């Protein structure tokens, strides 16, 4: 197939990213982030994705959303929710300086819960807040915390009162979204939940796709381009 040489070139490039050179080598730079070989190596099988990889991938999703035909996406960084939950709105007020998050369609909030990654998604078109956890835990309190943040952000930035009763908050159930079958894929699940949602696509992948997604993400991060 004509794709074969291309695929082989990509595969050898991915393997080289893991295997050659020093841990501190810089392999990609964008979104005010620097990704080293050590960071990329967290994408090896059963590796635990770190903040740099998560934030870089969210940056790629936001970039893509600027193209024609995609919903407008805003992504908070992985430190946002822990700061919000420990300090309330005033602790993160400056994070959206010069940005009106309400001008977007979808807001992605990757969440770091000590040893687990999850994702919260605000759909401003539908007025929904959904929580995606590949271990099936509920995040109703997280949804409420973010709704309260949105109310305060709207009041402060736009002088508009959100009507909380118009919003639907929902933790996705284990029958609604795929679940991880090991202790290390949560970060990849979060990235792919975000990828499908930011294209308005139904989430149809399975845990079997994880090894492939990991390798694909290596290529995408190095080339700063989503396939």
TrEMBL record:
Tell me, which GO biological process terms does this entry list? protein desumoylation; proteolysis; regulation of macromolecule metabolic process; regulation of primary metabolic process
Under the heading InterPro entries, the entry gives: Papain-like_cys_pep_sf, Peptidase_C48_C
Task: Identify the keywords attached in UniProt to this record, alphabetized.
Answer: Hydrolase, Protease, Thiol protease
The UniProt entry's GO CC annotations, sorted and at most eight, read: nucleus
Q: Coiled-coil ranges per the record? A: none
What are the Ubiquitin-like protease family profile domain coordinates in residue numbering? 33-197
> Which PANTHER family does the annotation name?
SENTRIN-SPECIFIC PROTEASE 2 (PTHR12606:SF11), SENTRIN/SUMO-SPECIFIC PROTEASE (PTHR12606)
Quote the protein name from its UniProt record. SENP2 protease
- The organism named in the record is Leptocoma aspasia
Organism placement in taxonomy: Eukaryota, Metazoa, Chordata, Craniata, Vertebrata
List the gene name. Answer: Senp2
């Amino acid at each position: 197939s004509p794709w074969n040489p291309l695929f082989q070139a990509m595969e050898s490039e991915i393997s080289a990213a893991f295997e050659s050179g020093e841990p501190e080598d810089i392999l990609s730079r964008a979104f005010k982030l620097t990704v080293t070989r050590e960071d990329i190596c967290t994408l090896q099988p059963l590796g635990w994705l770190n903040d740099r990889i998560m934030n870089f991938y969210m940056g790629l999703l936001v970039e893509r959303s600027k193209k024609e035909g995609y919903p407008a996406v805003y992504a908070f960084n992985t430190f946002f929710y822990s700061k919000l939950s420990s300090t309330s709105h005033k602790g993160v007020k400056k994070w959206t300086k010069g940005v009106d998050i309400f001008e977007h369609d979808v807001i992605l909030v990757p969440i770091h819960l000590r040893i687990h990654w999850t994702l919260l998604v605000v759909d401003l078109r539908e007025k929904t807040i959904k929580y995606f956890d590949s271990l099936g835990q509920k995040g109703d309190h997280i949804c409420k915390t973010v709704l309260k943040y949105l109310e305060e952000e709207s009041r402060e930035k736009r002088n508009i009162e959100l009507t909380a009763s118009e919003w639907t908050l929902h933790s996705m159930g284990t029958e609604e979204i795929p679940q991880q079958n090991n202790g290390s894929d949560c970060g990849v699940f979060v990235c792919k939940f975000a990828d499908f949602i930011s294209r308005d696509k139904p989430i149809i992948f399975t845990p079997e796709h994880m090894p492939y997604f990991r390798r694909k993400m290596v290529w995408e991060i190095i080339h700063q381009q989503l396939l």
